[in-house]
């Protein structure tokens, strides 16, 4: 875009953009070595069975606290970690750490870990996952990996092959943020996903919005037809939980149940049966 302004265009960026660019550069620089300096941590957010109110799994969510910059938002630094390729090392660390945490949970509680496209481009994703499972002795069927459709957007064949190998290890594969991309539906017949996680943007306006109802219902019918189980993201009210349960969503995740919490708090949550929202009479 700067080029389009032609020769002699000294104002390459909008005033605000310059600052933004500097900030991104500073973040990128700070990201190098953040793993070594032990600046990352993992929080765990429960996914709750909408019928029983019981915790079925936790999703591992990365957090970064820089000594000067403070806490940096994942939506801000994960794309940078992705661009720089640093996510490969960080991702391997998350897998090992989260599997270790999960290996101490009761047998029926699963772990879900997000994978980014850069991890698929790096050789060795499958062996990284296998090593994390072996090292921590977490049973393979207790690990779920979440991908977004961006993984299937490019290098489609190669990544489908990797997904198939991951599946062969015995782990489950979930399609994350369903509905937000270019062609969410298009990917469903390319790979037999174990789970679809409906993006929270569709849950947000429930139960008030007619459009919201229509989408939630249509996705449920489709998933049922395909034999894929459904998790709804961003469940914040019990009215939303009740509606989603009624429409056939088996799990919910969101602030209604719990925010992402530390490993210790997660274990305490498991101990206490979740009665955070009224389970309606059958
Ligand atoms: P995601 O995988 O879709 O994770 C769900 C995000 O929604 C999390 O944001 C979570 O804190 C937030 N959330 C959960 N419940 C609610 C709710 O009721 N209301 C609202 N408004 N938000 C809710 P977070 O932790 O900031 O992560 C953002 C994104 O960053 C994640 O979206 C995921 O794509 C990515 N991410 C996080 N951790 C990792 C990681 O370890 N590896 C990779 N590759 N990506 C990660
Ligand atoms: Mg996720
Ligand atoms: Mg998600
Ligand atoms: Mg999301």
From TrEMBL:
Coiled coil: none annotated. Residues 24-274 form the EAL domain. This is Diguanylate cyclase (GGDEF)-like protein/PAS domain S-box-containing protein.
